[in-house]
Amino acid sequence: MIERARGAKEHELYAIPANASGSHTESAHDSHSSRAPRDGGAYGYGDDASDGASIVHPTAERYAQYTGLKGVYYNPVVQVWFLGFVCFMGPGLFNALTGLGGGGQLDSTTNSNANSALYATFAVAAFFAGSINNVLGSRLTLLIGSTGYALYIGSYLAYNIHRDAGGFVIGAGAVLGICAGLLWTAQGSLMLAYPTEDQKGKFIGIFWSIFNLGGVVGAAVSLGNNFHNTVISNGTYIGFLVLTGIGVLIPLLMADPRKMIRSDGTRVVTPRHPSWKTEFYGLWYTLRTDPSIILLFPMFFASNWFYTWQFSDYNGALFTIRARALNNLVYWLSQIVGSVSIGFLLDQRGLSRRFRAFSGWCVLMVMVFVVHIWAFFYQRDYTRDTVSDKIDIHQRPYVSRLWFYIFCGLLDAMWQTTAYWFMGAMSNDPAKLANFSGFYKSLQSAGAAGIWRADAVKLPFMNIFISTWVLLVAGLVFALPMIHMRVKDTSEDTDETL
User: Which residues share a beta bridge with 267?
Assistant: First the structure.
């Protein structure tokens, strides 16, 4: 009853007639109340639950768009830009640092252990981060999450100055795992809640492009600062630290999601703020009402696994510092191309959504085999024991290996963008999407924690490479029946009971 009253109160606060006569169409609350399954009422779901946080139906009330500066500020596209720059300054620069191989260090052991600690805590934090996001709100969750990146970058500056600070780096990695779980879950919920049905691929593409600019800018800075160096300079870490500090402040500038209006006049639906008991129950309830999400778990698990081989066992193992920096730059540039191109395919309105889903799946499968067949011919020629002379940018073997790394970046962006699109195709409910995003980040981090630790204990390069290839193929194979069963031409209203 409290939730129902809260939904009615929000309706009073934000109901703005869309037509001159002041008449209203059917409210989202009334429409959904008649459809919700009679299930889970004791926990605030189903028949006895408020529908204030459910999706807006085709018959939902339309609201007048903001005008003037408010119209710009509350525009969903503008807010996605804000969201993108939060991740530009935090995860983007983290990617630039990690993409150097070994965090820019000559010995990657400390970096691998820090990443293992990071993803281990990330796996736990992300699993419940959807519930935390629903309680604290997306802006506060983003703010807390972004602070971990500044701490982590600072730890590498300390390590570059004092070589006995390796424990600090590993501890900062563990703290960042908790913060990153919060940040990415809030990001996923907002990014999937702001667009209309036919804009999801576009919004994901916009976000991913801005986010990856962080990797591009960070890689460009590290290339310029270290072009004539054999080790990464303190100035590179200081520059990264200043930028991540700025990123912590950006969530304070973002709009209240409850006041946002989509381009079709429907209001963005914000997550509810019920009790912790209800939210933890919501994780199980999501699995019970949408068990097909389990078929995406292998895809989620594989989605960070390949970074270990790409960053440390290929880029970090084979190249000089400046070659690693240049590889890093083109890798993140190619990610922008990859995310925009797959987003364009997934948003082709002239094609049915099911056809787009299967097309995206086929593109990923082709890219997985192209990249890994190509990689195999490089990996078979070196091991941990035989790597000695590093390849520099002026040497003949460098060009083909640079092109290969571009394709690695394309595959990464396409994989992540398509995974988000699959989740968005399954639901429009922000609370459910927050839990989907939490599952995604939790599982991908569990996989990453394991493979980074394997790298730290010097598992053979070929073993790590083969496991990467197998997991990516398995992720797509398991995702195929989910696409067949759950991806429809529009998200089902009756699914939205959270």
Answer: 261
Q: How far apart are CA 211 and CA 182, in angstroms?
A: 17
The single-letter code of the amino acid at 156 is Y
Read off the tokens for 406. Answer: 């571009």
Q: Mean pLDDT, to the nearest integer, of 454-483?
A: 93
pLDDT on residue 377: 95
Q: Write out the two tokens for 436.
A: 């989907």
- Tokens (6 digits) for 472: 């990516």
pLDDT at 327 over 70: yes
Class of residue 14 by CB neighbours under 10 A (exposed 0-12, middle 13-18, buried 19+): middle
HSE-up of residue 12 (Cα within 13 Å, Cβ side): 6
Q: How far apart are CA 292 and CA 492, in angstroms?
A: 14
Q: Are 105 and 234 in contact (CB under 8 A)?
A: no
**What confidence tier does 270 reach under pLDDT thresholds 50, 70, 90?**
low
The amino acid that residue 302 corresponds to is A
Please tell me the pTM assigned to this model.
0.72
Q: Are 184 and 441 in contact (CB under 8 A)?
A: yes
Q: Has residue 22 got a pLDDT over 50?
A: no
CA angle (105 as vertex; 100, 109 as ends), nearest 5: 105
Q: Comparing C-alpha atoms, which of 306, 251, 342, 308 is closest to residue 473?
A: 306
Q: For residue 111, give the 3-state DSSP assignment.
A: helix
Rounded CA-CA distance 241/370 in Å is 37
Backbone angles phi, psi at 319, to 5 degrees: -120, 160
Number of neighbouring beta carbons within 10 Å of residue 407: 17
CA end-to-end span of the chain: 15
Pick from 359, 332, 364, 331: nearest CA to 347: 359
29 touches 51 (CB < 8 A): yes
Counted residue by residue, the chain has a size of: 498
- The average confidence (pLDDT) of the chain is 78
SS3 content of the chain, % helix, strand, coil (to 5): 75, 0, 25
Query: Is the pLDDT assigned to residue 41 strictly greater than 50?
Result: no
Tell me phi and psi for residue 440, to 5 degrees. Answer: -60, -55
* H or E, element range at 305: none
Strand partners, 391: 319
pLDDT per position as a tens digit, 51-63: 333 334 445 677 7
Exposed, middle or buried by CB within 10 Å (0-12, 13-18, 19+), for 67? Answer: exposed
Distance CA 362, CA 7 (A): 42
Please determine, for residue 125, whether its predicted confidence score (pLDDT) is greater than 50.
yes
